[in-house]
Amino acid sequence: MADPEDDFEIRLSSLEREVASLREQAVLTSTDVAAARVLAAGADHDVSEVRAELRAHTQGLNALRETQLEQGGEIVSLRHGLAEQGREMREASTRCAQASQQWPLAWHRSPRC
User: What would you report as the CA-atom Rg of the chain, rounded to the nearest whole angstrom?
Assistant: First the structure.
């Protein structure tokens, strides 16, 4: 039969090797955790920068939208003005054509032609 003292020594030696292995794993795990924290901090910083850039782009697009709305209103106003001028030109042309048919009698009475 095996000596209980030898069995104890074998179990103790095995246990010491397991503890040493667990300590090595703990050190590696601790190093991995520290590296993960550094990566997470860097990612957080990068996300903050991207968010700031996104806000800046959004503000720029909003400003561009406002400008386009203002210019659209001005274009509509210009169109109305041009339409009015077109009507006035047609009326003046009609008056001139009528006056030229009655010329020389009506020529001196039509100051716009």
Answer: 46
